[in-house]
Hints:
Blueprint: H1 2-11, H2 20-89, H3 93-138
Amino acid sequence: MRRLRNFHRTTEPETSVMDLNLLMPWLGAAALILSLGNTINGFFTSGAKKTAADLVTTRSDLTGLIATLTKLVEDQDRRVQAIEIEMKHLPDAKAFVDLRLSISEMSGKMGRMEENQIGVSRTVLRIDNFLMQQGAKAS
Length: 139
């Protein structure tokens, strides 16, 4: 009987069925590594998503700020140009010196004219008195 059993075993083709019990520890380790990798990836990329959202918000804020600053610079440029145009019409230091000298000369001339006017005024008063006396004698 023993012989029949052995014969039976040898005549059956050998099947290569994998034993899942041998693979279970390795599959568990692979699943653990994948889950840890996924957790770590999620941890690091969640901060990246928040940073990306903050970056988009900051860029839009900066774009608005740059537009405002550009407008302010353009306004200041226009104001400076207007002031420069007005300053071209104003006298410079040499013109002020010339103006001061001219005023001094005019002041001196006015003083001389005042002295002459006093002399002319005295002469007119004397002539007026003389004529009044002559008119009083003739009447």
